[in-house]
Amino acid sequence: MAYDLEEQEQLAAMQAFWSKYGTMLMVLLIVAAGSYSGYTWWKRQERVNAAEASGLYTQMQTAVAAKDNTKVQRIAGDVRTKYAKSAYASMTALMAAKSAFDASDLKAAKVHLQWVIDNGNDEYKSIAKLRLSGVLLDEKAYDEGLKLLATSFLPQFTGAVADRKGDILVAQNKIVEARTAYLAALATMDEQHPGRAVVMLKLEAIGGSVPETKAAA
C-alpha cells in the first residue's frame, strides 16, 4: 500500500512537472533536433562544395596548361561567384591573374589580384600584393607600387618585397636606394635561396657590391 501511495505521489509530481514545463521541453527538443539536422546538412553541403570547387580548380589547371585564357577567366569567375569563401577562390584568382598577365590583359590581372587582397588569407594576400606590385611596375605606376610594398606582409616575404622595391627604384633611376633595397633582400636570403643569385646579378648590374658571406664553421 505504501508503495502504491508513493507511486501515485511520483506520478502526480510528474504530471505537475509536465503540465508546467512540458511545452517548453518539447520546443527545446524540436530546436535541438532542427539544429542537428541543419548542422548535418551544412557539413554535407560543405563537402559537396569543396568537391565541386576542386573539380573547377582541376579544369583551370588544364586550361592554363593549354593557354586558354578565355576559359581560365570563366572558371575563375565561376569559383569566385559560387565558392568565394573556399581556399580555391584565392588559388584560382591568382592563376587567373597570371594567365591574364601573360595575355597582356593587365586590367583583368589587377582585378583578380585585388580580389585576393580583399578576401584571401594572410599568405594569399601577401602573394597577391607582391604580384600586383609587379603589374604596377609594368604599368610604370611606381609610386603606387612602392606604396603597396610598404603595407604589411608575412615575414617570409620580406626578401621578395625588398627585391621588388629595388626593381621599382631602378625603374625610377634611384640607383642608390635600389642598391640598399637589394642588399636588404640579400640579408634575408640564405645561400640556398632560389632568388639569391638573381638579386646578386641585379645588384652588380647597378654597380653594387655583393656582401661576402661568412664561411661555414
TrEMBL record:
Transmembrane regions listed in the UniProt entry: 21-42
Start and end residues of each Ancillary SecYEG translocon subunit/Cell division coordinator CpoB TPR domain: 16-207
Protein species of origin: Massilia frigida
InterPro entries in alphabetical order: SecYEG/CpoB_TPR (IPR018704), YfgM (IPR026039)
UniProt-annotated location(s): Cell membrane; Membrane
Pfam families: TPR_21
Domain of life (superkingdom): Bacteria
Keyword field: Cell membrane, Chaperone, Membrane, Transmembrane, Transmembrane helix
Upper taxonomic lineage: Bacteria, Pseudomonadati, Pseudomonadota, Betaproteobacteria, Burkholderiales
Signal peptide: none
Membrane topology, as annotated: Single-pass membrane protein
Official protein name in the record: Tetratricopeptide repeat protein
